[in-house]
Amino acid sequence: MHIGLVGLGKMGGNMRTRMRNAGLTVVGYDRDPELSDVGSLAEMVEQLPSPKVVWVMVPHGDPTHSTITELKELLSEGDVVVDGGNSRWTDDEIHAAQLAEKNIGYVDCGVSGGVWGLENGYALMAGGDAADVAKVQPAFDALRPDAENGFVHAGRVGAGHFSKMVHNGIEYAMMQAYAEGYELLEAVDMVDNVTEVLNSWRVGTVVRSWLLDLLVKALEDDPHLSQIRGYAEDSGEGRWTVEAAIANAVPAPTIAASLFARFVSRQDESAAMQAVAAMRQQFGGHAVRAAEESPDVPPA
Known about the structure:
- GO terms for molecular function: NADP binding; phosphogluconate dehydrogenase (decarboxylating) activity.
- The chain has two domains: about 1-155, 3-Layer(aba) Sandwich (Rossmann fold); about 165-265, Orthogonal Bundle (N-(1-d-carboxylethyl)-l-norvaline Dehydrogenase, domain 2).
- About 50% of the residues lie in helices and about 10% in strands.
- It is built from twelve helices and seven strands.
- It has a seven-stranded mixed β-sheet, sandwiched between helices.
- Helix 7 (about 160-185) packs across helix 10 (about 235-245) and helix 8 (about 195-200) packs antiparallel against helix 9.
- It is elongated and about 75 Å long.
- The mean pLDDT is about 90.
């Protein structure tokens, strides 16, 4: 199989290597000439036999919109575009309709595996018409883990990215639970070796997971995480998951709380907690800290 790959960053670059290792011919394009195989998107398309398959791995939003708009002018009837980035599922319907004007197929694919995907393979969740998915299947087979599972044709256009969105929402909640457990273990003076406690959970317990493996690895490298600031961004998919839950009247309190916890991490000082402290002082006479007072020093 010949395939074009747009976007050769951390994920895209590793995906190019994994597909080539599986025997596929990959023509990669990136705006960074040091990474790119060709000088332009048009040159990449020219090197592909028909029906052409182009996989897009660029940031969601405007970069994806503009790439698909350009590909529409370069591709022809029967070709297929795959969006493997973290696009919102509602964008998939727009992109599919846009490409359908020239009878170009569209497949959305949620991709999970991060920087470990090159070695371990990627979990792939595809949405789109079965005939279009079939044209991309050799690439899916090259990228998926060496196991029976790891790839699913999840449903119609949008189903792939919707599935990946829910996956990431669950990921938010799992990470938050591990993080809170870690903080509690660190807070008490009776646990001497927090890292080894977490390490002991990695085999035989119901909470074992790859995320736990990664947390233990991080603690082995930096036992008290002193080199890392407690600031966590969100890629957008946690927000989209909560919005979808609201739109479908599905209770998702754990995922929502984990998203809000990330917002809290970005505050040097929480206005809400200032208000809580003020109210506690008003109704109970509880002591408060002055704004300039160090949080590590008990109030007088």
